[in-house]
Amino acid sequence: MYAHFERHVYHRHSHETYSFGVTETGAQAFTCRGEAHTSAAGMVMAFNPEDPHDGHAADALGFTYRMVHIGPELLTGALADATGHRAGLPLFASPVVDDPVLAGALRALHAALLDDGATALRRDELLQATVAAIVRRAATTPAHAPSGPTRSRRVAGQARRLLHDRLTDDLTIDDLARAAGASRYAVYRAFRSEYGLSPSDYQRQLRLRTARDLIATGTPIGAAAAATGFTDQAHLTRWFTRCFGLTPGAYRRATR
Asked: Which residue ranges carry the DNA-binding annotation (predicted)?
């Protein structure tokens, strides 16, 4: 992602990947993990997978930024290289890191990924070097797995499973409550606590990700909207733009 925004406001969303970015000019303000943050020019943004966040320009001048989304499996190996042992996936405690070295590494990686003249080997080398640097300089100790699922986690997980299994169904909170064996209020509270989004926001995001994958593989936008539970193409386009920062048509052209 390489973009300049002045008035665009990202709806609260998350990514299934790690997301690392550099603010080039201006400043981006956002909330993440219940706190407000600002990434000014030269600062690095680091989001863990499924970190809910929003985003908008901090002032009328807007901001320009680069963002790279990297699958968790790539960071697993980098963590082993950086620490000498494989201890699990790294976590980033702060979504904003003021580190000029990391900012430079991310700029170089981003430029190579967009450069048609860069060789595959060069891209791979920069990816490995950048991931290793991010883990070494900014990651915290990986979180230990909990000893066992709490009731709240079980309730949230059962509700989440139903949302995945019945992607296009018009589910109600009562449907989720029956699947989880809990009250409506308990499901909503557990889901927000575990995933940082309401069940309806999570459902919409899941549909958006599925539609994005369909569009990338050549499915017409209208058909992708129908296949993922959106009312029509305009409905998909409106939410796609709010959460991903570009229209489905622009995304389709980029993937081609």
From this structure: 172-191
